[in-house]
């Protein structure tokens, strides 16, 4: 288990990015389509998410990686699952 970022292989990272990108999957966090043509650092650009973060014991393997938007992946951070936004329910009932 590699926990030090410097121990991860950039060659393997680039290979995994290409393999995931080939099928152009939607964001694994929000489920929305990803625009694979967006420029670097755009909030909607394609990035690779570690489903189980390296910091939480996840492995740097293709099976533990999925496509995500940069903003979704940033919001998820090193959590196991993205925190859902609370849903607001409005009612006309008065007490």
Distance between the termini: 56 Å
What is the SS-derived class?
Answer: alpha+beta
Strand order of the largest sheet: 1-2
Strand content: 5-15%
User: Helical residue percent?
Assistant: 10-25%
- The helix/strand order is HEEH
Low-pLDDT parts are: none
Q: Biggest β-sheet: count, sense, barrel? A: 2 strands, antiparallel
Task: Describe the structure concisely for a colleague.
The protein has 2 helices and 2 strands. The chain is of the alpha+beta class.
Describe the structure.
The protein has 2 helices and 2 strands. The protein has 95 residues and is an alpha+beta fold. The chain has a two-stranded antiparallel sheet with strand order 1-2.
What's the SSE blueprint?
Blueprint: H1 10-22, E1 46-50, E2 65-69, H2 70-76
Antiparallel strand pairs: 1-2
Quickly list its features:
single chain, 11% strand, 2 strands, 95 residues, two-stranded antiparallel sheet, elongated, 21% helix, alpha+beta
């Amino acid at each position: 288990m590699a926990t030090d970022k410097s121990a991860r292989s950039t060659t393997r990272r680039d290979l995994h990015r290409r393999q995931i990108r080939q099928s152009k999957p939607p964001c694994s966090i929000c489920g929305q389509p990803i625009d694979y043509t967006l420029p670097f650092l755009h909030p909607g650009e394609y990035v690779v998410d570690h489903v189980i973060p390296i910091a939480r014991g996840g492995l740097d393997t293709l099976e533990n990686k999925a496509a995500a938007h940069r903003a979704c992946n940033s919001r998820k951070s090193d959590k196991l699952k993205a925190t859902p936004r609370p849903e607001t329910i409005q009612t006309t009932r008065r007490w």
